[in-house]
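---------- Forwarded message ----------

FYI, see the Pyruvate synthase record below. Original note from H. follows.
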Amino acid sequence: MALDIRKEMGQAGSVEQRIVYESGNEMAAYAAHQINYHIMGYFPISPSTEVAQFLDLMKANGQHDIVLIPADGEHGSAGVCYGASAGGGRVFNATSANGYLYMLEQMPVQSGTRFPMVMNLVCRSVSGPLDIHGDHSDLYFALNTGWPIVLCRDPQAVYDMNILALKLAEDPEVRLPVLVASDGYFTSHQKRRVHTFAHRDDVLKFVGERPPEGFAHALDRDHPITVGPYMNEPDYINNCYQQSMAMYKAEEVYDRIRQEYAALTGRDYPVLDLYRMEDAEVAVFLLNSSAEIIKDVVDQLRASGVKAGAISPNLIRPFPAKAIAEALRGVKAVTVGDRADSYGGHGGNMVNEVRAALHAHGNRDTLVISRIYGLGGKDFYAEDGLKLFEFAIDAAEKGVVEKPFDYHGHTAGDPAKAPKRVLEPMKYEELKTGLITVTPDEASGKLNVRVPPLRSLTKKPKRIAPGHGACPGCGIFSGLELFFKGIEGDIVALFQTGCAMVVTTGYPYSAHKATYIHNLFQNGAATLSGVVEMFHERKRRGELDHLGLKDDFTFVMITGDGGMDIGMGPAIGAALRNHRMIILEYDNEGYMNTGAQLSYSTPIGHRTSTSNVGKKQGGKVFHHKDTAQIMASTNIPYVFTGSEASPQDLLRKAAKAQWYAQNVGMVYGKILITCPLNWLSDDKDGSTIIEQAVNSCFFPLYEVERGVTNITYNPEEKGKRVPVSDWLKMMGKTKHLSKPEYAETLRDFEGEIERRWNMLKAKHDSPYL
């Protein structure tokens, strides 16, 4: 329960406050809802995803008016935010790691055209390889984007800095977008006691009720403007100079704003957080959450007679170079810990900026030691902090730094522990059963497929080994393995980021028996296109003859968990080029691997963590994307939908898919699979739920072969069609749709299903549709 803390805090400032017990992500969302931004464009990525989730939950309950826009990827979300900023309102976003890098080219545009906004960077390791835990490798990419950057070492700072950041961004002397950086999982998910403004009005009084008058924007008809013009020299250098001056001005403005905030709340965030630095002879410089841990080490060293101190900035853009040089004057040696490397730069970004600051401001005496630590979310303990001090103490005593740059916390490789093959490669003779035949019909141009009963293929080896980490009842692998039963011979598989990828690969283990590739979430189709073309070109040149390949590989890209949202552009590009490969989408109707956020494949009215159900919102507010029809419109030779509820149908389509992918061009297939964890359904009901989705005509089974549509299972003709509501009642995520207050959404959903089904039947009846 929130409490009035004015008495508890004593001299706590002049404004009424409350206590909450929340995480860093919750406090970012809490500050945003108090500010009541106009727009948030977002795309889910761990560990920042919860920010949008919490805001959506509050939105469903009517606690704010922010328009939450789920983008097709982080690049799109950055575009949404830029457009909204150009429209003159207040804009908010949150992202992490690869998501930030995906939007990176938009960041200098936002700052270079001087449109304010606030974005939370919940810091996480940048791939590759893939790691979802916290370090600063994404933060360091932000240093050259022209955004002021403030830092948050705990959930309290996340809340406070989000409020300070907006006022800083909108100050007429700054007028730049501001980045609020906190540590992924260390701060984002750590629950702490936090003091907040008790009333939204007090927040708005501090930041101002709306963006300042006089800021040009795109929605003023009486003062039209040109946003982002082409610009030549000398105008471009002048623009950059003005932006640079605004950035440096941000330090002075920040210092003024933080003093105003301190007077209101009793909490102060000076440009530098200095701990026992008054007479320090050795020091450690760290950012964010580690900077709190190091204070305990300082106390321990002080108790043993060592004059130790700690220094940590609350602002790193602009970099407080003069203040750092002054703080280190009299310090014999300082260890700078970087939670990311600047490869080839003999240290991370912070150590090189500290060195430059000392040189520029006349401090040539302090010795500087660089250590890279805590990468990939590696924990930072007091013992690690003590080791960082030992490096400084040793340098101070000897008067020289014996090893200026190194990593701390890594383990030297041991050849004896190199990963060894556990599973032997599958035998070609087992994979090529000869029981499946595909022959072209010369008259029609279509394929005649003969598949045996499923039991005849049970001896065919599974291409994914047991022992993966999927949730109980997950439909991904039963669906994939059924599809793979219809593929003869060797495959090369690329898995986009998603549940299927995450639960089958965890170094040094892999559940994949065939060659497996993973690349960035959005870029799978382009990546596999490159592999396909390299195979055929190397084969043409005779460079693969020594491998003794009996047949060509079948190249298969597995996507799901929203991969055909963020990856749709590259997928369409691959389709238009008609590479000989298969894209198979498992559709679980959400971004399940990041916490069950809505995907464009999520149907209207369905509950997800970013389409909550409450008094102001009844699940997802727009219809699901018909991916199969989108891909069919690219004129690739074969498109199909399938379901493990109709196994023989899926086997036939897999065999067709292989023939087309090896002989003609690209194939796209979509299978609906169950996700009991996030559908809120019983593990044992998965097959029944999928079967009812088919029989309700929500997920019709059909194929589009050389542009001609053929429904391969018609529940109406079989007398098996069921009402959509019967299917929806089987899942907790859709049970609310049976309530009277959501009747209109249900009718809308039913109407759309009927429209799409009738359109499909019309295409089935006419080869010209």
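H. also flagged this: The chain has a mean pLDDT of 94.
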